[in-house]
Design brief:
- The protein is of the alpha/beta class and 918 residues long.
- Helix content is 45%, strand content 16%.
- It is built from 36 helices and 34 strands.
- An eight-stranded mixed beta sheet has the order 15-25-24-17-18-19-20-16. Strands 27-28-29-30-31-32-33-34 form an eight-stranded parallel beta barrel, surrounded by seven helices. A six-stranded antiparallel beta sheet has the order 2-1-3-8-6-7, sandwiched between helices.
- Strand 1 (16-20) and strand 2 (23-24) form a beta hairpin.
- Bound molecules: phosphoenolpyruvate (PEP) and magnesium ion.
C-alpha cells in the first residue's frame, strides 16, 4: 500500500483511469471525475458483480479539461506519461500495438461529461489508421473493403471534429468539410448506380480515401495526419475543445449544466460491428422508455457501425418481437438470427438492471460473433414511463418507496395530465417561433386574432387558437373558447398565463418578435400566420409550429401506476396541497387531483367569461353609482350572485377550507374600454353617455397595479367589503344550518399595514353578529386573514399577525413589488437577463430564494412570533413550481396552493421535499 502511494506521489496526480480485462481503476460513483460514460465503463468492466465484456480503454478525467481551460489550453505535465502507460495496458490486453504496421490497435476517442449531453460533443472512431497500418488491418481481417471503409470514416470524422470544428474554422459558404466529403461519397455512389454505402467495393473505397485526403488538404490547408500518435492527441484535444463548442454551450444553458464541470475523454479499443453478417451493433433499454413496460426493448443493425444507427439511413431491426414497430415489423429479430448472442445480451441486461437498480440504456456491438458492451447509463424516459418504472420497481422490491418517489421529476407528471404533441411528429418539425411556456401541454387550432372571432369561430364548431399581443379580462370569453392562447408580450404571470394555467389550457406568452396584427401575425423570420391558418403549440416548451400536428391524449383512469405514485406522495409529504379555483367545476377537478381545499378563490372571476353578463352589469352599475345610496342598491342586487357562486363552490368542497379573497383588481378594469361598449352600458344603465365616460375617465390610473385596488377599495367603499363578507358568511351559515359543512377563510388582499386589517375586521365582526342573528345560529366557523404580497407587509408581519389568523403569500405581487419588475412587462427584458446570467431563472416562475425568499422567511418568523399557530400558505403561481414547493416546505409553510392541473405535481414535489429534509 505504502509503495503504491509513493509511486503515485512520484507520478503526480492521477489524471488517467484504466478499464478492461476484468479490472478498472474507477467505478460508477466517480461520475464527477470520469464523466458518466467513463464511470459506467469502469463499473461494467471492473465491478466483481459485472465484469462484462467491455473493450479495454482509459479515461482522461474532467480535471484535465478544467486544467486545459485554466492553463491556456495546455495539459498537466503528468498526462503524457499516464496516457502512454494506459495505452500500453490496452495494447497488452488486446495483444495488438497502436501504430503497428502488421496488426494495428485502433481506438475511439469520445467525450463524456457528468451528465449526458446527447449529440452535443464529438467522437472520432478508428484512430490509428494510415496508409501503412491499413494494410496490416487488411491482412489481419482478410477484409479489404471493411478496412478501407474504416479508413474513409476516420478521415471524415477527424477532418470534421479535429481539423475543422476544434480549430474554430468557419466553413466557407456554410458547407463544412464533412458535408463536402459526404457529397463526394454520394457522387461516387451515383456514378456507380448504387444506393447504399455497403454497395461500394474495396476498390471504390480505396480511391475515395485518396480523394478524401486531397479534399481535406485543399479545403483545410493542412494534410490529414498519418502519425497515429498525432491522431490520438488531436482527438483528445478536440473533445476538450468541443466542451466549449456552440452546441455544447447552448445545451448547457438550457439544461443549466455549469461550465466548470468539464468533460472527460474516453479512449477505447475499437470493436467492429461492420465486419460482415456475423457482426452487428445496437441500442437497447432494459424496459420500454416510451411507456415503461417491463420488457427488454431495442434495435440493431447487422454489419454496421454505431453511427449508421444514428444516421437513420437503414431502418434498424427489432431485437425481439416485443420491440417491433410499424416500420420494423417484418424485419428479422436478433433473437431469431443470433439466438446465443441474444441470450447473452438478455442476461447481461438483467444483471445490469439489478446492479444499477434502474432502467438502463445500453449500447452493444457484435464483432464476428463476439458480444461487447460499449456503454450503459440510466435511460432517459418520458413521464408516463417514469411513473410506471418507478412504481413497478417498487412493487418488485428493487427500490424503496422514497427512491420510487425520487425517480419521477414532478414536471414529468404534466405528460400524464394533458394532451401533448405527438413526440414523433415534433421531432421532425421545426418551430416557427419560441416564447415562454405559460400553460403546458399541446394544442392545435386555426389562428384567430380577436376574442370575438374566437367565440364566433368556436360557435361554428371550429378549433381555434387565440393569437394576441397580450390579453385583458375583456378577452376571457375568447380565451375560454380557444384551444390555446398565444401572445407576443407578457411574462409567466401575465393575464394570459394566469388564466390559461388556471384552466389547464395550453398557452405560450412573450413570443418576442411575433408581430401580431388584426388579421395576421408575422414571425421574426417573416413567416406569416393568417387568420384561419392551422397552428400547433407546445405549451410545455413554449414552441409554435405552423400547421396541424397530431396530439396524443393520455388517460389517467387507466393508469394504475399514477394512483400508486400519488398514494406514496401522500404518505411522505408534510405540506398540504390546495388549489387556486373559483368555480365548482374547477374545484371538483382539483379535488379529483387530490386538492385538500381552496387556497385562493378570486372573487372577481365571476365578472369574466361564461355566465358573467348579469353580475358584470351589476358590478358596473355599482361602479357607476353617483353616491353611496345608489351604490348600496346596486350592491344588494349583486350580492345575490356573489352568495350563490360562493355557496356552490363551498358545497363542492364539503367542508374543506376555502380561502376567499375580497375583490382585488382596480375598478377601472371592469369599465368597458371601447366607445361603442361605453355607449351600450350608458343605455343599459339609463344614464347619459358623457356621465359614464366621465366616471370611467375618473377611475383611470397611471399605475393601476400600485393604485386603488385590493384592501384600498374596501377602505374607500366599506360597503363593497361588507357585501362580500355578508355573502360569504351567509353562504357558510346557511350550509351549516342545513347540516352541511363549510369552512371559509376571509382574505384581505394587497395589505401593507395592520391598520388596514383592523379596519376590515370591524366590518367582519359587525356582519358576523348580524348574520348569526339573521340565521339564528350560534357559530359559523371561519377565519380572518390576509395576503402577504407587499414587502412592507412581510416586514411588519409581527403586527399583521395580531389581527390576521392566517397568511397567504401572494408571491406574484410580492415578486413584482420586491424586484420592482412589472409582472406584465417582464417579457421584454427577461430573455436578456437570463442569457447574460443576471438572473438564474424567471422569478415569476421559481421563487427567488435570495431576495423574495428572505421576505417570506421574515414574514413567517415574525408572524409566528406573534401568533404561534398562524396558518401559512402560498397562493402565487410559485405554489405549483416544484423547486418553490421544496422551499415552501423547508421554511415551514402549512400548505401550497396551485392551479388544479398542478396539484399532482405539487403533491410529488412536497413528498420529495419531505424526503430531502429527513
Ligand atoms: C399574488 O399576487 O401572488 C396573487 C396570488 O394574487 P394575483 O395574482 O391575483 O395578484
Ligand atoms: Mg396579488
Amino acid at each position: 500500500m505504502a509503495n503504491l502511494r509513493q509511486a503515485q506521489i512520484k507520478k503526480g496526480k492521477k489524471y488517467v483511469y484504466r478499464f478492461g480485462g476484468g479490472k478498472a481503476d474507477g467505478n460508477e460513483s466517480m461520475k464527477n471525475l470520469l464523466g458518466g460514460k467513463g464511470a459506467n465503463l469502469a463499473e461494467m468492466a471492473g465491478h466483481p458483480a459485472l465484469r462484462l465484456p467491455v473493450p479495454p480503454g482509459f479515461t482522461c478525467t474532467t480535471e484535465v479539461c478544467t486544467y486545459y481551460y485554466d492553463n491556456k489550453r495546455t495539459y498537466p505535465k503528468e498526462l503524457k506519461a499516464q496516457v502512454e502507460a494506459a495505452l500500453a495496458n490496452v495494447e497488452s490486453l488486446m495483444g495488438k500495438k497502436f501504430g503497428d504496421p502488421a496488426d494495428p490497435l485502433l481506438v475511439s476517442v469520445r467525450s463524456g461529461a457528468r451528465r449526458s449531453m446527447p449529440g452535443m460533443m464529438d467522437t472520432v472512431l478508428n484512430i490509428g489508421l494510415n496508409d501503412v497500418t491499413v494494410k496490416g488491418l487488411i491482412k489481419m481481417t482478410g477484409n479489404e473493403r471493411f478496412a478501407y471503409d474504416a479508413y474513409r470514416r476516420l478521415i471524415m470524422m477527424y477532418a470534421d471534429v479535429v481539423m475543422e470544428k476544434a480549430e474554430g474554422i468557419e466553413p466557407k459558404g456554410g458547407k463544412g468539410i464533412r458535408k463536402q466529403l459526404d457529397e463526394r461519397l454520394e457522387e461516387v455512389k451515383k456514378a456507380k448506380g448504387v444506393k447504399l454505402d455497403t454497395d461500394l467495393t474495396a476498390g471504390d473505397l480505396k480511391k475515395l480515401v485518396v480523394e478524401f485526403k486531397k479534399i481535406v488538404k485543399e479545403v483545410l490547408g493542412k494534410p490529414f495526419p498519418d502519425d497515429p500518435q498525432q491522431q490520438l492527441w488531436g482527438g483528445i484535444g478536440a473533445v476538450f475543445m468541443s466542451w466549449n463548442g456552440k452546441r455544447a454551450v447552448d445545451y448547457r444553458r438550457i439544461e443549466k449544466i455549469p461550465d466548470e464541470w468539464g468533460t472527460a475523454v474516453n479512449v477505447q479499443s475499437m470493436v467492429f460491428g461492420n465486419m460482415g453478417n456475423d457482426s452487428a451493433t445496437g441500442v437497447a433499454f432494459t424496459r420500454n422508455p416510451g411507456n415503461g413496460e417491463h420488457y427488454f426493448y431495442g434495435e440493431y443493425l447487422v454489419n454496421a457501425q454505431g453511427e449508421d444507427v444514428v444516421a437513420g439511413i437503414r431502418t434498424p431491426s427489432p431485437i425481439n418481437n416485443g420491440s417491433k414497430n410499424d416500420h420494423s415489423k417484418n424485419l428479422p429479430t436478433l433473437e431469431k438470427i443470433m439466438p446465443k448472442i441474444y441470450k447473452e445480451l438478455f442476461n447481461i441486461q438483467l444483471r445490469l438492471e439489478k446492479h444499477y437498480r434502474d432502467m438502463q440504456d445500453i449500447e452493444f456491438t457484435i464483432e464476428k460473433g463476439t458480444l461487447y458492451m460499449l456503454q450503459c447509463r440510466v435511460g432517459k424516459r418520458n413521464g408516463v414511463a417514469a411513473v410506471r418504472i418507478a412504481t413497478d420497481m417498487f412493487a418488485e422490491k428493487l427500490i424503496t418507496a422514497p427512491e420510487a418517489l425520487n425517480r419521477v421529476q414532478p414536471n414529468q407528471l404534466v405528460e400524464l395530465l394533458l394532451p401533448m404533441i405527438d413526440p414523433k411528429a415534433e421531432s421532425t418539425t421545426k418551430p416557427i417561433a419560441k416564447g415562454l411556456p405559460a400553460g403546458p401541454g399541446g394544442a392545435k387550432g386555426r389562428a384567430v386574432f380577436t376574442s370575438e372571432e374566437a367565440v364566433a369561430w368556436a360557435a361554428r364548431g371550429e378549433k381555434v387558437i387565440l393569437v394576441r399581443e397580450e390579453t385583458s379580462p375583456e378577452d376571457v370569453d375568447g380565451m375560454h373558447k380557444a384551444q390555446a392562447i398565444l401572445t407576443s408580450k407578457g411574462g409567466m404571470t401575465s393575464h394570459a398565463a394566469l388564466v390559461a394555467r388556471g384552466w389547464g389550457k395550453c398557452c405560450v406568452v412573450g413570443c418576442e418578435g411575433l408581430d401580431v396584427g388584426a388579421k395576421s401575425a408575422t414571425t421574426k423570420s417573416g413567416q406569416v400566420i393568417n387568420e384561419g391558418d392551422w397552428i400547433t403549440l407546445n405549451g410545455t416548451k413554449g414552441l409554435v409550429y405552423m400547421g396541424e400536428m397530431a396530439l396524443v391524449d393520455i388517460d389517467l383512469e387507466h393508469n394504475p401506476s399514477y394512483g400508486i405514485l400519488m398514494k406514496l406522495c401522500d404518505k411522505y409529504r408534510k405540506l398540504n396541497i390546495r388549489t387556486n379555483a373559483d368555480t365548482p367545476k374547477d374545484t371538483a377537478k382539483a379535488i379529483e387531483f387530490g386538492a385538500e381545499g381552496i387556497g385562493l378563490f378570486r372573487t372577481e372571476h365571476m365578472f369574466y367569461g361564461e355566465g358573467s353578463d348579469k353580475p358584470l352589469f351589476l358590478l358596473r352599475k355599482m361602479i357607476m353609482s353617483k353616491n353611496k345610496a345608489e351604490r348600496i342598491n346596486a350592491l344588494a342586487e349583486l350580492a345575490v350572485f356573489v352568495k350563490k357562486d360562493i355557496k356552490a363552490t363551498m358545497e363542492t368542497l364539503n367542508g374543506l377550507p376555502i380561502t376567499i379573497r375580497l375583490i382585488d383588481p382596480p375598478l377601472h378594469e371592469f369599465v368597458p374600454h371601447s366607445e361603442d361598449r361605453l355607449e351600450a352600458l350608458a343605455k343599459d344603465l339609463g344614464v347619459d353617455v358623457a356621465e359614464v365616460k366621465k366616471r370611467g375617465e375618473s377611475l383611470k390610473e397611471n399605475n393601476p397595479m400600485l393604485g386603488h385596488r385590493g384592501v384600498r377599495l374596501g377602505v374607500t367603499y366599506p360597503e363593497v367589503s361588507e357585501m362580500q363578507i355578508r355573502a360569504i358568511l351567509e353562504a357558510a351559515g346557511e350550509l351549516v344550518k342545513a347540516g352541511k359543512k363549510a369552512y371559509p377563510e376571509i382574505m384581505i388582499p394587497v395589505t401593507c399595514t395592520v391598520n388596514e386589517l383592523n379596519d376590515q375586521k370591524q366590518l367582519v365582526d359587525k356582519v358576523y353578529a348580524e348574520v348569526r342573528a339573521k340565521l339564528g345560529i350560534k357559530k359559523i366557523p371561519f377565519m380572518f386573514g390576509t395576503m402577504i404580497e407587499i414587502p412592507r407587509a412581510a416586514l411588519t408581519a409581527g403586527k399583521m399577525a395580531e389581527t390576521a389568523e392566517f397568511f397567504s403569500f401572494g408571491t406574484n405581487d410580492l415578486t413584482q413589488m420586491g424586484f420592482g419588475f412589472s409582472r406584465d412587462d417582464i417579457g421584454s427584458f427577461l430573455p436578456d437577463y437570463l442569457t447574460n446570467k443576471i438572473l438564474p431563472a424567471d422569478p415569476f416562475q421559481t421563487i427567488d430564494q435570495e431576495g423574495i425568499g428572505e421576505l417570506i422567511k421574515i414574514g413567517i418568523q415574525r408572524g409566528r412570533k406573534t401568533r404561534k399557530k398562524l396558518k401559512i400558505g402560498i397562493c402565487g403561481e410559485h405554489g405549483g413550481d416544484p423547486e418553490s414547493v421544496v422551499f415552501c416546505h423547508q421554511i415551514g409553510m402549512d400548505y401550497v396552493s396551485c392551479s388544479p392541473f398542478r396539484v399532482p405535481i405539487a403533491r410529488l414535489a412536497a413528498a420529495q421535499a419531505a424526503l430531502k429534509t429527513n
